[in-house]
């Protein structure tokens, strides 16, 4: 039985090596990446048994994705589908002023047809925390219903619900996202949201402290975490706001930083830490993630502890 | 102005290195591959100016495909589209008894919406030969109409029409293919078809000589070429059947062998060779292709001549 | 709960690419390989839930091994150790007349200290089959006792015991192996042994049919399988001998072929097949394994079925 | 018909991966690079149809170079030669304090024998701009005459002549360069020159503004651009000097930065921009180039616009 | 006859590419690395004929190590052993806050049994300088005796003895190191030590100047060099302390920086430089090393001169 | 002091991976290759101390070549030159019917200016055997004189002279080769020549036995070896002809097979073997070479013994 159950799509990520361009690529590095499995992995690395639920095509590509997630240690409980594609995305790394490029190729995927009744809802209701993100309902109208049903089932089973807003402008328009996601808010206990999304999608104003406070008060969340990219995060809980600065990093890959943060935050809360402590570990995990290629936070608890206690390690031999 | 104009889809091909499995792949080799561009490239390598027509997404992936085709020397004349995906396919190499695996991911591509009126039909009508394959009408109902229209336009402009039957069971059922493609036969001058397809899709019986003869007589083609995989080919022309054995090869990649054959056959016919000579060059080009990784026949005229004249070269220094 | 539980060491395998030499290698390909986990994976791929038991160092290298085994789909139940090395082996591929080279570096490993009481013996006793090989007792005197204890525990729990003789001359002398392993024979139900080992280690004479018969009669095994390398296998069961020829293969990697055979044999027996049918599937799985780089049989049940029914597949698209 | 025609040598560039040393390299990355084709590609990426003229050996190496340039989208019009080598250069990347190393291996190349009469001079005279650099006349005495003839032909056909001074100390001595190149100045409309070259080769003094002014006045150019490495550029036109600062970049490869600048400057001038605007786009294109491995500016017009308008993009998804 | 003879272990280093993690590595880059051979190579690159003494297994792995050292130009004089492993170490690169990770796998190596009498002691006594480090006696008790014997033999032959303290906490405890190494001090002429080791292992206090002075006075060394990581070094000689700042570097690999420093320091002293000049060259060599992947300082004398004279080179072509 | 001294050019070899084409290569594998150093390495691997003499550019490329030869264990004694290129060659692997392609780029190399007086002729005269090939005098007229002088010096110092005819049609015409090389014959003791060269260059007729006999009688050689490619060799000595069949091989790389043969033949003769035994070892070494990528025979004496005694090894573990 897992303490954390997450639900969402995981894609095959295809990236040219280094900072080469898609336009002339002669090879792609391949890895699995998706917000909900990234979060499950990060939480698992911090000692929380975690399971990822999804619907995946019964093809070598689908098995490729599930195999990698198992390699990273989490449990997977997937509906194998004979219809629908495996979602992919193309990712091109780049420094300033080019900026990384993402091309989604995730239409008509197996998961886009996933209905709540296809999953073993006991797994969700027996978990301590259920987690999904704003990406899932953006993928299809079926998934909007499924997301709502699963959040509802979780709540009714006494499971805490956590949700990362994760607005993706390449998937839907801000107003459509706003309408869809705010409808889900009453069923959510813990909201994680980027300050940028709070402003541009939900129309809130103010600094991250103010955003956290306004969101928490207006929607009756238990906890709200507002992330500020490379500048740390703010947590609102019991009407109190806590700030956490980011750690200095030599960034290798930004992708998955937010998921590492969220997974670690949930994990430490499940271990019983208070919000400020959980924010500290979450920020440390996010900093470590940035030094690691790929989508997932391949960290150990000891490494996170070391960053929290001393800001990171030197070459040790 | 090109002597040969071809029309069809070219995909991005993604292959794990060597004979590794998709299920555990951590990198993909990337190249462009599609029957119609493969044919144009092979013909071009044998000295026939060739152009490939297509509809391609205006994305780095679409530009990736077009760039590679230009690198191989042909002209490209594409409709750039802001809708529709870039088709891809996953290819896993394997020896006996595993057998290579192909997974198509080519639904909802840009080309599936291509209409004849989007192309500069003068290019087709000013060419000496227009070529497409049975894959194109298999991709969408729109493309069935488009293929028919373009063959018709070519014929009405005095352009010879050549067509490779190329049945793909992962795209459509045999009876659907049979109904669709035989309707196109009256507009086709030169048919290339695998003996296997003549039997299992069109229901003909007999050895390749008989298949060629029956097809030629029944449908009033100018020329029919029946290919026999690694055992050579048979050509029917002016009611005479010509046989050509295959050359011995150290096979590195089978994919594209038929296209190399067809491109070279068309090229040599355009150079004025008779059918038996063209079959000989076509078979030699196919043999060379099998020694080359990827989809396309990166050969030179000199190399083909050398195979025809002496069966191939030794290490020369 | 797993139907098959295996116990043994899995090493990190380090190989120069292609057929390059260790002596000048500038990179190593890395994968996990060990007879007992290879067998578990092959059985799992054929539909039998399988678990691998072992003792592994609590280091990135130990986690590397376990992660890869999980990726391949099996369950792992390992004792994490703070003492002892991760075993490695260097493997150099080569064609004739060079021959592949293996250099073991597996002294003082974590597993060499593994005692039966460190493992949850219920897992063994609740399984339908318990499997280990002659490599395990070759690794340390502690492991000789552990192997004996675990076979005994399995038997007493009603679990069928299967054992691959797997003599490794780089680990011990023939007479030492003979003395140690024949002492284990009374606790073994199913013996798999190479004809070569039956001759040079156990001193039997005759063709594989005779070897199987003599072994089966003399030691009161339930089933004996004598393998003949690339020439198939012979099975002895209920005093009847069954022969199975090998399938033709384009061999990419011989290592793990025997384990693929054994895993598939056990799996099909667990599915209820009789010995001749299980030998057929085992031989087909071994043939597929030879087309796959690395130690493990990354096959699917469908692929094995296809080899059994038609001798393997052609390029299909 | 191309708006921009360039003439010069393009070499095969051989580089050890990352920052490895030539002295121990076991592999080389291969790409095509040459100032004049780099400029054509950059201009073409910014929407100006461009053609590169050259003389190239009729070998796989010569075809390799031409194929890559075609892949990047430009037209190539080359004299295929049966005599003379393909020029190569070895490039070793390095950070401070090592500094990148270039070893030229470009003696006795095919292009070193190129005479003006070998080229279709109409292509030059029908272009809007003809471009070459100070590297071309440094390669052989034949090429000194050829460069002079082609500039003269361009001018007489009403084509604007643009010239990048590009002094290369590994090709010739400063005084030889100074004597040769200043003789060409009367035939040049637009001069691009590094401040360093203006000082050490031509003996001018002062800051870049002063250098631009002195050069412009003394030699009666239409336009002079003085580049200042990573500190931007200065443009002199109609007796007015315009300054442009450089954009901040995460530099991956400096080589080709100047060519990206020049190609973009010419392209924007051809689109009708005034000098300050063209300098802005040129600087933005140069900044993007620095994020891209290899010699050429694989950019899109949209990317350049985004840098000009907002200083570059963040990760967008 | 070599001017510098060094003695110690050289390992095979196995590193995942880039900043990937050991835990998921699918390939390792392989190189040879060991403090004493690194020092010999650096000195040799600066023009001092150098020889490395060691005991190495007579296996492809041992030959791999020796071959690479010969490639880098030094002489090797090794005792080939049929017992004992080749030492390896796993190295994971990482930026802040992760920090590089080293896992030693160097127990039971061939060298751990090396006795002084196995070596041709004339080689040591005929050298001008004999060098080893604090790593050697940390490897086995046999090597403690061997190190002492060789230092003694060197001294008695009139050879200057140089020693890098090189404390490795993964090999032994500080107090054990302190007791062992200070016993060797009377036989050492030139000590190189990190400020950190002087403090945490030897218990000295103060800034590097003070550390150098205290060490020099207390133990009667001829010369003491205290290194300060990326902040340069301090040299004490004839009771005078000299400071040298570090050069700015774009660091690619820190490993081997200290050895590059030490090798260059010894080389320049052997060329007759005074201590401040030798420190300058040593610091320049260390700075160059940081730009080079792997363990060894693949530099040329010209490059070092250029850093000393001008702080490093720009792209030159 | 070396028993074998060889003299000749060693090139940098650049090859696309696998069987890819030069025309589209994006990377080259790099290694050193030259007949005379290949022979020295093969002899050295079989236990004969060997030295290679040459003239090499004082550049990273020249040092790259020398470093690799040292890595393979031989001594190098080179004249470092500040003029002249490092010779390179491009090699494209291919199976039937394509055939491997070699493109030489070895004009104006440093070695082409090498004069006998630049070398320490004592090294030649103190060796037991001096070896060079017909490639050396093909490289320049200076080298024709140098080759003659060195053979003469060797003879006058009592050193046995061995010579591989090695005709290269890409370097010179048959008649030019014939005139030049037969003039050297009186100074040669041991001639190795391919049957093909004996026929097409020297105009002899007959089977290899006859060729050996005719050559031996006509030119008064001590020993003549006629090689028959993959069909073994024939040795003539003391008017007796000995035949040796080739071993069966899985060929990975043909290049360097002849040099492996010759190096081993010389080595075994120096060890005191008679001609038939030396032919057997030479053929075994050549067979092993064919399993090894690159130009050189990275074999061990044990491996050669094993092929001679048992025809090669199986996987051993």
UniProtKB/TrEMBL annotation, chains A, B, C, D, E, F:
A Pfam family this chain is assigned to: PfkB
GO molecular-function term, one example from the UniProt record: kinase activity
Keywords, sorted A to Z: Kinase, Transferase
Domain Carbohydrate kinase PfkB: start-end pairs: 1-294
Family: Belongs to the carbohydrate kinase PfkB family.
Protein name as annotated: Sugar kinase
Organism of this sequence: Natrarchaeobius chitinivorans
